[in-house]
Amino acid sequence: MTYHPKSDFMQVMIERGFLADCTDYQGLDEALTKGVVPGYIGFDATAKSLHVGSLIQIMMLRWLQKTGHQPITLMGGGTTKVGDPSFRADERPLLTPDQIDDNISGIKQVFAKYVDYEKDGNPALMLNNAEWLDGLNYLDFLRDIGRHFSVNRMLSFESVKSRLDREQSLSFLEFNYMILQAYDFLELNRRYGCVLQMGGSDQWGNIVNGIDLTRRVLDTEIFGLTSPLLTTSDGKKMGKSQDGAVWLNADMRSPYEFWQFWRNTTDADVGRFLKLYTEMDIDECERLGALAGSEINQAKIALANAVTTLCHGAEAAAAAEATAREVFEKGGVGDDLPTLELTAEEIGTGISIVQVIVRAGLAKSGKEAKRLIAENGARIDDAPLTDAGLMLDAGALAAPVKLSAGKKRHALVKLA
Fold first, then answer.
1. Between the CA of residue 327 and those of 78, 336, 404, what are the distances in Å?
2. What is the mean pLDDT of residues 159-188?
C-alpha cells in the first residue's frame, strides 16, 4: 500500500491493519477530508448476539465515529428472511419474523458500547432494512431494480461461483440476497446520504453491486471498503474457540470466558490483535507484540483487559483478571468462573462426572469428556481426574467443586 492518506479515518484503517480493499482510495479519502461521511455495515440477525468474528467491523464503525464521521449500524430485519449465501456450503435455516425481532433486540445491546447514538454532530444511527424491504412490490422492484443486474455477472462472483463449482444447490431465494443488499445501499444513500459501505472481504461482490446500482439509479458517487477475513496464526477462523462461538453478549458468554479467550491468544497474534481490537497507541501495540518468552503474557493480559473493557466495562475486565490470577496463580476457586448449578432432584442418587463435564461446557459430548479423562486432561479440585465412572452425589457437592479441562478452561459445579 503506497497511498498516503490525508484523512484520519483512512490513516487508522491502513496503520492498524483494517484495510483489505477499497473501490476508490483517493476518492474516499478526499470525501473524508471534506465533511462528515455517513458509512454503514449491515448485520443479519441470525443469532441473539454477534460474536468475535464481527468485532473487526464494529471497531471500524467505532473508528469512523472517533474520526468525526457518522456510523450507521444496519440491522438486517429484511435480509435475514432470505439469508446470505456468501461462501456457505448450504442454505441458512429460515427464521420467523418473531425470531428475527428477538435476535435484533439482543444484538442491539452490543452496539451501544462501541458507538454513541447521542453524540453531538455525528450521532450513530441504528436502522433496520425491513423499513424499506418489507413493503416492496415485487413487480415494481423487478422492473425498477432487477433490470440493472446481469445474471452473467452475478454468476461470476466468487461467493456464488464456489457454491456452483462444488455442485451445491443455490436457491433462487438466496440468489436474490445480493440484489437486496445492493438495494440497501441505494436506499441508505437516498434516505440518509450514506456514501460508504464497509464489510469483510467476503462481501466485496455485494458491496460492488450496491455501488453500481446506486450510480445507475441515482448517478451518485459512493464507495466500498473491506477488511481482511481474519484467521488466527494457526489457521483457525476468528470468533471460534474450543467450546464454540465467542459471543459478545454477556448472557451468552460470561465476561470471564470472554476475557479468557483473549488471554489465550497465540503469541504471534498479540501485536496484530492489539491494533485491531483495542485503541492503544500503535507504538505500544508493537512494543507489547514484540515481547518474548514469559513477558508476552503481560501483553496478552493487556489485550484481554482492553478488549473486555470495551465490550463489558472496566469492572468486568478487572474482575476477570482477578479471577484468573486466583485460579491460575493461587490454585483457588474464583467467584467469577462459569458455574453449573445442579438441583438435588437432578443429582438424585448420583450424577456421572462425564455428564457434569459436558453440562459445564468443558466438553461437547460424553465421548469427548471420556477422552479428556483418559488423556489426563481433566482435573477435579486441581487433582488429576482418572476415573470416568466417578459419580457425584449431593454430599460431594456440599462445597463447590472446581473442574478443569487442560490448564486454561475451568468451571465450578455446585448445588442450586
1. 45, 10, 10
2. 81
Q: Is 298 annotated as a binding residue?
A: no
Q: How far apart are CA 328 and CA 324, in angstroms?
A: 6
pLDDT band at 87 (very low <50, low <70, confident <90, very high): very low
> Is there a binding annotation on residue 240?
yes
**Residue 116 predicted with pLDDT over 80:** yes
Query: Is 301 in the same domain as 351?
Result: no
Domain count across the chain: 3
pTM of the predicted protein model: 0.78
Q: Is 277 annotated as a binding residue?
A: no
40 is in an annotated binding site: yes
Q: How many Cβ atoms sit within 10 Å of the Cβ of residue 143? A: 10
Percentages helix, strand, coil for the chain (3-state, rounded to 5) are: 50, 15, 35
Give the chain's largest Cα–Cα span. 74
Residue 57 makes CB contacts below 8 A (sequence gap 6+) with 41, 43, 198, 199, 200, 227
Mean pLDDT of 239-262: 83
Query: Is 106 a member of any domain?
Result: yes
Nine-digit cell at 382?
Answer: 486441581
Angle between helices 8-15 and 25-34 (to 10 degrees): 130
Integer Cα distance of 10 and 29 in angstroms: 7
Of the three residues 292, 310, 329, the one that is the final residue of a domain is 329
Name beta bridge partners: 74.
42, 127
Do 201 and 228 touch, CB atoms closer than 8 A? yes
Query: Residue 305, Cα to own-chain centre: how many angstroms?
Result: 18
